[in-house]
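so the lab meeting is tmrw and i was supposed to have these ready like two days ago... anyway. pasting both below. for each one the top line is the aa sequence and the line under it is the C-alpha cells. i havent really looked at them closely yet so no promises
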Amino acid sequence: MLQKVLAVVFLIAAWNKHMISQSVYIKDVITHASKKNSSSPKCPQFCVCEHSKQEASCNSYYEGFSIQSIPQTFTVRHLNIFGGLKSFPLEVQSLKGLQILDLSRNALTTIDMLHVGNPGLLEELDLSSNDIVKISSGAFSEFKNLKILSLSENKLQTFPKDAFKGLANLKTLHLRFNKIYSFPLGLFNPLYFLEELDLRNNNIHWIAEGTFQNLTNLKTLQLSENALTSLSGKVVSEINNYTVIGLHGNPWDCSCELENFLEFLTQQKLRVSNPDLLDCYSPFRMRGTKLQDLTQNDLKCDIPHIDKVTNSLEVPVSSSGSIHCRASPEIYAIGYWITPQGVKISHKYNQEMLEQINITTLSHLKYKHSIEDFSELFITENNTLTFTNFRGVFNGTFTCVLINSHGNDTANLTLTAVTKLFTIEWVGMVYGGVSALTALVFGLLVGMIKLCAIHFCKCSCVLVEQREKPKVAMDYTFEVYTDDQNSSSRSLDDQDSYDDSYQNEESLLKVPVNSPVARTPRSSPKKCATPTPEEYLEKGRSNTSYTLNEVKITLEKKMEKVRNRVHSIRESGSQYLTTIKDSGSIAANRVRAGVAMGVEQVKFGVMSMKEFCGTGEMAQTISVVSVNTDVDSEERSTKVTKMTTL
C-alpha cells in the first residue's frame, strides 16, 4: 500500500516539472514572434494582408480609402471600391499585381479605355450595379487574360461592334438586367472561348442570324425574360449541341414563324431549361398554350390586318399628339410608317428585324426650324406615331404598314396643319376673365346705387333738397289738396319731420314707430287765453286790426310756400319713390318713422295754432282731416289731405 502512494506522488511531481518547462518554452516563442512582427510593415486600413507573401486584399467605401496609403512593399491582388465612384480611378494604374478589380455598386456612367498597372494579370472585372449607358469600342482590349466580365444591372441598350475586342480568353460574360434590345452583327465574334453568356431580363426582340456562330465553346446561354417572339432556324442551328438554353418568360408567337424553333424544341428538349414554362402569347386564341404541347398543324400564318387606325385630321400648329395604327390581336406583325417625304420610321426594337427583309428605317425624325425650335416624329413600341411641335413640314399623307413573313397591310391618313388664333383653352380663359370682370363691375354698380340710396339725403342721386326746419312757434294755415294723378305728395311739415327723423336714424331704428318715445322730444307750448269781446274793446280796435292783418300775411306766406313745395314734390315724386324702393328694409323703416313723426308734429302744430287763435272774430276753423301713409315692400304712397275753412 505504501509503495502505491509513493508511486502516485512521484508521478504528480514529474507532471508538474514537465508543465513548468513547457510554459517557459512557449513564453520564449511568443517573445521571439513579437520581435519579428515589429520589423514588418503595417497592413493598411480596410485591407487583409498576408505578410509571408507581402500581398493584400482591400475592400472599402470609396471616400474612406486611399490607394496611395498602401505601402509599395505590398502587392494588391484584390481591390474592391464601392459606394459612389463616378469615374474610373486613375490610381489603379499604380497597382502592378492586380488580379481582381471590383468596382460594382458605384455611379459609373461611361466606360472608356480602361488602364491598370499590369493589364495582362487582370483576370476578373466586375462593373455591375452601376449606371453605365455607354461602352466605347475597345474599352477592354488591354485585358488579354480576362476570364470574367460582369456588366449586369446597368442601363445598357446596345453596344458598338468592337466593344469586346481583345477578350479572346473570356469565359464568362454577364449582361443580365439591362435594357439591351439588339446586338450588332459580329459583337460576340472575338469571344472564342466563351462558356457562359447571361442575357436574362432585357428587351431583346430579335436575334439576327450569325450572332452566336463563333461561340463554339458555349455551354450556357440564358435568354429568359426577354421579348422574343420566335427564333429563326439558322439561329438555332448556330448553337452547338452542348449548350443549355434558358428561354422561358418570352411572349412566343405560335404561328408558322415558330416552325423551326418548335422542331428544335422537340428534338433537343433536354437542352432547354424548364421547357414546361414556355407558353404562347399570340395569337390571342392560343394564349397560355404550352409550346411542348403544340404540333405543326397548330401553327398557322395569315396576312396581317389593320384593326385600328386614326382618321385624317387637322392639327393646330405647334401642338403635339399621336396617331394610332394597330394590327388585329389574332395575327402577329411588326409595323412602320412612311412620311409624306417618303422616309420610313419604326421603333428601335423593330429596326433589326426589318433589316432582315431589306427594309431600312429610322427610329425618329427631327426637323430644325431655328436654334431652339424643332419638330420631331417618333414611333412607340405599339406602332403609335407621335409628333411634337406640329408644323407644315408634316402636312400630307402618312402610310402605316404592318408586315410579317406572309404579307402586309397598309392604311393612309392625312394630317393638315391649321392656324387658330385661340384654342379652346385660351377661349375658356378669356371668357372666364370677361365674365369675372363683368360680375365685378356689376357688383360695384349695385353697391354704389344701394349706398347712394341709403344715404340719399347726402347724395346727389336723389332729387330732394334740404329744407330748413320750421320753428315750433310758427303758425300754419292749410288748404285742401287732392292728388288726382296718383302721384305722391308731402306737406311741408311732413318733409321737415322726415329730415329730423333722418338725423336721428339710430334712435328710430331701435324704437317702434308707434311708440311715444319715437316722437321728437319737444315741450308743449303754453296755452294762450282766449280774449273776450270786452278785452278787445279795452285794448282798442287798433290792436285788433293790426293783429288780424299780421295773421293774414303770415298765413298767406305759409300757403304760398306750401303750394311751391307741393309742386316740387309732384315733379320729383316718381324718382323719390324709386329710390325708397331700392333702399330696402332700412330705408322703409326710416320713411315709416319719419312719416309717423311728421303726422304727430303737424297735428301738434295745428292744435297749437287753434289754441293761439281761438274763436274770435276771425271765425276761422282749422282742422286736419287725415294724413295717411302706407309704406311696404311693393308700393309706397303718401296721401295728404288738407282742408282750410275760412
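ok protien two:
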Amino acid sequence: MNTITEQTLTEFSQWLADRRVIGASIAGEALYLADGTPTATWIIDLRNRAVTAAAFKVLADSGRKVWCGRVTSTRYTGTHRTVRAEHAGPYAMRLTGQRAEAHSWLWDASTLLHTLRPFSTTDNRWERDPRIDPLGFTATSPADAAVLTARLVTELHTGSPAAARKVALHSCQQQAMWRHREQIGWRVDVDKLRAEIESCYTSKRQLTDEFGIDLVTAATAADRARIHNWLAGYGIEIRDQHGDPTLARNAIDEVNLTDLTSEARDAWWKFRRARSNYSRMAKLLEIKSALQNGRIYTHLQLRATITGRSTSARPALQNIHRDLRGLLIADRGKVLVSLDLSTIEPRIAAALSGDQRLAADIASGDLYTSFARRLWGASASDEAGGIIQEHRDIAKTAMLQTFYGSGSATLAQRLGPDTTVATAQQLIDGLWAAYPQLRSFRDQLNAAARRRRPDPYASGRPSAYSPRGDHAALNIRIQGEAADAFLELSSAALHRLGPRAAWLSVFDELVVEVPEAHAEQARQILQETMCAQINGIPLTGQAQILGAAWRK
C-alpha cells in the first residue's frame, strides 16, 4: 500500500494516467483507491487537509472517474447507536469540509449497479455489506473493498449494452446534483415534532382505552403475538408469502375480508386505525432519532427501487404522512417552491399503450370524472349533471391501485369497510373494459415477464421483472418510464436553478429552496422546464410557492 504524501503525488498522478477502472472505499478517515487487482493501493489520510486538497486536485485534473459504494458510519448519542449508510460524496465532504465541486471525480457505484441491474435492489448482498461482491469476491479490508468496487464496475460496464451504460452514467451525474443537500441536511421544526409525538401518544392511550387492548405497540415478539392472538379471536390471520405471521403493510392490505362476520370486520377496522397510529408514530420517532442540531441528514437514492424510482433513508421521507410534511422547513431567509407532475401514471400508461380512450379522458381535463362515467354511465352524475364526488373518488382509487398492481382484496380494503372483494373486482374488470388497448399492452408485458425478458425502457435503461409475479409488470413499466421522465425534467430544472437549490425529490414532486426574493423566478423556471410530451401525451404540473414549510 502507498500513502499519498507531498513526495508521492507525482507517482500517484502517473498511476492515475494508466487506463484502468478505479475503485474506492472509505474507512474511518482514510480513502482507499485501487484498481481491479490488489497489487497497488493508494491511501489518502483525510485528516491531513493540505495533502487531501492536493490529492483531490490531482484526481480532478486527471479526468478519471473514481467509483465508490456506500459508506457505513456509526454515531453514538448517549446510549443510542445509529448506523447509517450514505453516498461517499457527502460523507467525504463532511470529513474534509470541501464543497461538492471538489469531489466531481467521485462517482457512486451503487447508482451504477441499481441502474444496470435493477433486480439487484431486491436481493443485493453487496449493498447490504460492501465487503461482499455479487461476483463472488469477498473483501477482508478497506483496500480489498476498493478492489471489489473496481471489479464490480468493470463487470457492469463490460456486461451492459452501450445505451444502458450511457443512461447509468447519466443517472450517476443526476445523483451527484444532490450531494450539497445531503451534506447540509434538512431543517426540522423541532417544536412541531415534539407536539406531534405527544399527540400520537395521546391517541395511542385513547385507542387502547376504546379497544381494551394495545394494538399499536409492536416492538417485541410478545407485542406482535398479542395482536395476532386478538385478531385470531375474530378468525383473522395475517401471513407473509412463507405462511408466517406478520404485520407488514403489504400483507395487511392483501387480507381478504369477504367471509368475515360483521363483528370481525368491525374489529379489523379498529386494527387498521391502530396501525395507522403506529405508522405515524414510527415515522415521527424515526425523524427524532435522526436529529442532529435541529437537522436531519437523509440519504437520497435516485435509482434504489426495482423501477428506478427515487427513495430516501434514515429517515425515509418518501412515505411521510402528508400532514407531517410541515415538519421539514426551509432555512432562514429562504422559501420552498415545488412542482408535482399531475396524474403521471395514467399519462404514462396512455403514452405507452396508445389507448385512445384513455388519452381522450386525460384530455378532457378530469380523467377520473371521465372514467367514473365510463363505469357507471348516467348514474355517476347528480341531478344537476355534475359528477357525484364519491363515484369520482372510487374511480380514482380503482385506476391508480390497478396501475400499482393491486388485486381485488387490496383494492377492497383501500375503498373501505363497505366494499366487498367482488365489487372491487368489478371495478378492475371495468377498467380493462373501458381501455382495451391498455389491456392488450398489459397482456404483452405479462407475457414478457413470464419469459423473464422484459424490454428495456425507452431510455435504454434495463427493466426488471417483479418477484411478485407478472401481475406487477404493468406497474413496473409505468413507474420505470415515469421515473426516467421525472428525473430528466427535474435535472433540467436544477441545471437552470443550480444544484444548490435542490431540496427534495419525492415520487413526482421536485421541491427547491431559493432566497425569498427569487421565489417567483424559481416558480417560473419549474413551470417552463418540467413539462414534456411522450408520444403526444403531455406531462404537466402546476408550480407553486410553498413558503417556509413543505406541504401538499
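from a quick look at the 2nd one: The radius of gyration is 25 Å. The chain has four domains: 2-183, 188-295, 305-344+481-547, 356-434. will dig more after coffe
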